[in-house]
Amino acid sequence: MRVNEMIIKMKPAQKGVTLLELLIVITMMGILAAVALPSYRDYIARANENAAQRFALEIATQEQIYLADTRTYTTNVSGALNLTAPTDVSTYYTTVVTVSNSASPPTFTITMTPITGTTQAGRSTLTLNSLGVKTPAANWN
């Protein structure tokens, strides 16, 4: 056999992928996505909740400093306390600070309510008061 005849008798090399291989890859990607997507959503929701907790603690710290200076608490977070909610908090939570300066001693409560229609909608409302009580306790780390 000559070299030219050997070249002619060889099968051409396969180019690309077969339909079966493509279907197997697509099925595997679908299974991975079905498992990973709920876990990713839960991870994002927990991260946003942790950001809200950090911001509530930051407000509480600034409220204590404000109390030492003025002998009262304030509801004006952005003005008197000079705090701005991070984007991952303001996008997903409504922050409300209620105060009772007529009480002895004065008190405050910070309430972080998940915004309806966001990934946080099914999460619990977080509260922190001037005594450091955090509710629901199971959601605070």
Question: How are the secondary structure elements laid out?
Answer:
Blueprint: H1 3-9, H2 19-70, H3 87-90, E1 93-100, E2 107-114, E3 126-129, E4 134-135
Question: What would your notes on this structure say?
Answer:
This protein is an alpha+beta fold and 141 residues long. It has one domain (18-139): Fructose-1,6-Bisphosphatase, Chain A, domain 1 (2-Layer Sandwich), CATH 3.30.540. Helix content is 45%, strand content 16%. The protein contains three helices and four strands. The protein has helices spanning 3-9, 19-70, 87-90, and strands spanning 93-100, 107-114, 126-129, 134-135. It has a four-stranded antiparallel sheet with strand order 1-2-3-4. The longest helix is centred in the N-terminal third of the chain and has 52 residues, at 19-70. The radius of gyration is 29 Å and the shape is rod-shaped. The N and C termini lie far apart (78 Å). The mean pLDDT is 89.
Low-confidence stretches: none
Q: Roughly how many Å is the radius of gyration?
A: 29 Å
| Highest CATH level, the class | Alpha Beta
Percent helix range: 40-55%
Number of helices: 3
Q: Globular, elongated, flat, extended or rod-shaped: what is the shape? A: rod-shaped
| Biggest β-sheet strands, sense, barrel | 4 strands, antiparallel
Number of strands: 4
Task: Sum this structure up briefly.
With 141 residues, the protein is an alpha+beta fold.
Features:
Fructose-1,6-Bisphosphatase, Chain A, domain 1, alpha+beta, 45% helix, 141 residues
